[in-house]
Write a structure and sequence with these properties.
This protein is an alpha/beta fold. Helices cover 26% and strands 11% of the residues. The protein has helices at 45-50, 52-58, 93-105, 124-132, 193-207, 260-271, 288-294, 306-310, 315-331, 348-351, 360-365, 375-391, 420-424, 463-466, 468-471, 478-492, and strands at 25-29, 62-65, 109-114, 144-145, 168-170, 176-178, 213-216, 279-282, 337-339, 395-399, 499-500, 508-513, 517-522, 534-538, 551-556.
Length: 557
């Protein structure tokens, strides 16, 4: 991870408001699936740059780029070979500079993904570690241990990988290394000063090139209890984030340890040295009260709210999660975050229609047929959910293609799957490819406008009807709904609180934002009367002046 001496990108043109991110709408781009400029079937940075006018017209405030670094794609780019370069298949550092310059020209901020928990096994450090042998300084950058058993043939602990199987892999000299994800992603040892110093350099490297912020991958896993003897957990399930409730807060061997916050307080000093300060957001799959710690002003400042994403389509459940999320963020001095889809979960157009208790993986294994999902009903519910989310105080994170209403591609043939989850679980879990299928931009062409050639994952013929070209300027389309809502949101934002209407009918969520506007979401199966106010936008047409099922409206007061 040597520092490159190429000329930094354009000067920082981002907003002079250091708090711009607190109520921003941030659009996630998975670069390999967004737009392909060179026709090789893989999205690239020049493709992103060519499509930035789409984001500007949409009305978002920033774009977040999922990893674009050199990678063999063992885990979709999250196995990073060099944190301060661009994968040659996706472009160059000059291409990145051009992307930032064009984004800033259009008034868009740029956030990049940082993957600090692990590197690629191809990373120069890991190759040095393999060659250096046990007890070396090179191995201390990672987590190497001797095995158990008479000849060290057993893993050091019973810890399990997120993707299935042991979290340990043996190397030819007999030692084992830790990988909480794929074997191609060895975990770094964050007790090592060289690791800490190198990531400080990486933060400065991208900040100097005009980046406005960072999304921190697996932010809750960096600090680990590596004191000897390492602790067994006793059950594979205790290796998962869901098991955190079984431990005293901050004491799990490798998730959400209290020591991790020292790392982010150190980073905040670097981020605050820029004008305006660089923002950061944590991907931390931890309970709400613990999640808020990552969002404190002297740490990352914001954290993803996955409890909201996982909440079923129920008025009571949503109100409880929204209320708790706002309170937790406020107590931490942060703003709340809201997200419905991302590169790791079933797209919400499909997910919100699955009956309560449905196993997402079983549904994917069925090709999306058990149970079958009514795509029209799913889109109606997704539009209502989106308008509800965009009315909430805080930042909204939008995943590429949701503005087109894209459903999950659940019926991808197994022979085309790329997600390592499929192989690592012995074909038990289908993985995340269904939400990563390349976007349709036009109604025709070999990849519906994704690029001049094909696409690295097959697009279904139904994508033609969802293409941006098919929806542009079409009244009532999902694309135009997003544009309208985002334009209104920017005008209406005032404060970071809401006031619930306690007299709303059962199954209806109603709240006011300041004294200017009101959101009403009907989650019932029947139309309801609207309260007083001028209708600004609805997720579906009104039914004789009433708000239909699975419909959200914004009203001016």
């Amino acid at each position: 991870m040597t520092v490159r001496t190429t000329t930094p990108g354009p000067p920082d043109l981002s907003s002079q408001d250091p708090r711009w991110w607190r109520q921003a709408v941030i659009y996630q781009i998975y670069p390999r699936s967004f737009a392909d400029a060179d026709g090789d079937g893989l999205g690239d940075l020049r493709g992103v740059t060519q499509r930035l006018t789409h984001l500007a017209a949409l009305g978002v405030d920033a774009l977040w780029l999922s990893p674009f670094y050199p990678s063999e794609l063992a885990d979709g780019g999250y196995d990073v070979e060099d944190y301060r370069d661009v994968d040659p298949r996706l472009g160059t550092l000059d291409d990145f500079g051009a992307l930032v310059a064009e984004a800033h020209r259009l008034g868009l901020k740029v956030i990049v993904d940082l993957v600090p928990n692990h590197t690629s096994h191809r990373h120069v450090w890991f190759q040095e570690a393999l060659n250096a042998g046990p007890g070396s300084a090179a191995r201390d950058r990672y987590v190497f241990r001797d095995g158990r058993g008479e000849r060290g043939e057993l893993p050091p602990t019973d810890w399990q990988s997120v993707f299935g199987g042991s979290a340990w892999r043996r190397v030819p000299d007999g030692q084992w290394y830790l990988h909480l994800f794929t074997p191609e992603q060895p975990d770094l040892n964050w007790e090592n000063e060289q690791v800490q110093a190198d990531f400080r350099t990486t933060l400065k490297f991208w900040s100097d090139r005009g980046v406005d912020g960072f999304r921190v991958d697996v932010a809750h896993a960096l600090a680990k209890d590596l004191s000897e003897p390492l602790r067994d957990l006793g059950s594979p399930e205790l290796s998962r984030e869901a098991a955190l409730s079984g431990f005293e807060p901050g004491t799990h061997p490798f998730y959400d340890r209290d020591e991790v916050h020292e790392i982010y307080r150190d980073w905040r000093k670097i981020l605050d040295a820029y004008t305006p300060p660089r923002m950061a957001v944590a991907e931390a799959w931890v309970p709400g009260a613990r999640r808020a710690l990552y969002a404190r002003p002297d740490e990352l400042g914001q954290a993803f709210n996955f409890e909201y994403l996982q909440t079923r389509w129920d008025a009571g459940d949503l109100r409880r999660v929204i209320t708790a999320s706002l309170a937790e963020a406020s107590a931490a001095g942060a703003s709340a975050t809201w997200v419905l889809s991302n590169h790791d979960v079933v797209r919400h157009t499909s997910r919100l229609m699955l009956p309560e208790g449905t196993d997402d993986n079983a549904w994917l294994l069925s090709g999306g047929h058990a149970p079958a999902v009514d795509e029209a009903a799913g889109l109606r519910r997704a539009r209502a959910a989106t308008l509800l989310m965009l009315a909430l105080p805080g930042s909204a994170y939008v995943y590429q293609g949701e503005e087109l209403g894209l459903p999950e591609v659940a019926d991808l043939p197994t022979e085309v799957l790329q997600d390592p989850i499929w192989e690592q679980t012995g074909h038990v879990r289908k993985g995340r490819d269904g939400c990563r299928v390349p976007l349709p931009w036009t109604t025709t062409g070999p990849s519906y406008g994704f690029g001049p050639g094909g696409s690295w994952l097959p697009q279904p013929p139904a994508f033609a009807a969802y293409a941006a070209e098919a929806q542009d300027g079409v009244a009532g389309s999902t694309l135009e709904l997003y544009r309208t809502a985002l334009r209104l949101r920017r005008k209406l934002l005032d404060g970071e609180t809401l006031a619930w209407a306690d007299d709303a009918p059962p199954g209806v969520l109603q709240f006011d934002r300041s004294d200017r506007w009101r959101c009403v979401a009907n989650l019932t199966g029947a139309a309801v009367s609207l309260p007083a106010g001028e209708v600004l936008v609805t997720s579906a047409p009104l039914e004789d002046g009433r708000l239909g099922p699975d419909t959200t409206a914004w009203l001016a007061l």
